[in-house]
Amino acid sequence: MDILNQLAETFFDWEAMGEVIPKMFAVGLPNTIVLAVVSGIIGTALGMLLALMGISRNAAARWVARIYTDILRGLPPVLTILVIGFGFGPIIRELTGSTSPYPMAIAALSLMSGAYIGEIFRSGIQSVDKGQLEATRALGFSYGSSMRLVVVPQGIRRVLPALVNQFIALIKESSLVFMLGLLASEREIFQIGKDFAANSGNLSPYVAAAIFYLALTIPLTHFVNFIDARMRAGRPEKKEPDEAAAVVGKGAQA
């Protein structure tokens, strides 16, 4: 019983959790969402560019995309954040006059997610049957139009579950930007929990942070499963044929 009481006091001190939750809700949660959403949008745009470069007919573009992807995917996220934040941070601060590391945190997360999203897009685009491209070219479409209107949309649809999974990973990776020394108003969920835990000497603020992260990631996980199930099942077939289609069919036979 003593061990259970000690564990409860260490991890489930409701008073300590009650002190940190309002700050997490008012400051940490919005900052975490902003970091993940903005980085996800930039990373998606960068990933699409890398995917198109990766399947380009230009050898130089393919090499640039491959080198970038291999490096950013090969480095640990914490190292990438430190290199970008402390390496390029002073240059950006000197150019902009801003002392906030928040933009560098977004830049680091965006560059990392772009490398992974690029591979997701590339695999989705290349999974589309080559006959789709050949058919559109036979109809007179240019290569660019065929990719933009036919191949790329189909490839994106196939990798939607993987994209949502990457966004879930991005939410969790946003907890690493605390190393850049964010200002008090810029701190995300983990940093706030870390500060309260250090001040109180209790680990309950970390448990509160875990609850917030689970509240964000679990619904997205089920959303991924829903998307995957719908895509596997496909569109339900109509039980009765459309009357207009039947009339057209009869006219064609006549």
UniProtKB/TrEMBL annotation:
The protein's UniProt keywords, in alphabetical order, are:
Amino-acid transport, Cell membrane, Membrane, Transmembrane, Transmembrane helix, Transport
Family matches, as InterPro entries: AA_ABC_transptr_permease_3TM (IPR010065), ArtM/GltK/GlnP/TcyL/YhdX-like (IPR043429), MetI-like (IPR000515), MetI-like_sf (IPR035906)
Say if the entry is tagged with keyword Ribosomal protein: no
Q: What is its main location?
A: membrane
Q: Which GO terms describe its molecular function?
A: transmembrane transporter activity
- Residues of the ABC transmembrane type-1 domain: 29-224
Family membership noted in the UniProt record: Belongs to the binding-protein-dependent transport system permease family. HisMQ subfamily.
Name this protein carries in UniProt: ABC transmembrane type-1 domain-containing protein
Organism of origin: Paenarthrobacter aurescens
Question: Lineage of this protein's species?
Answer: Bacteria, Bacillati, Actinomycetota, Actinomycetes, Micrococcales
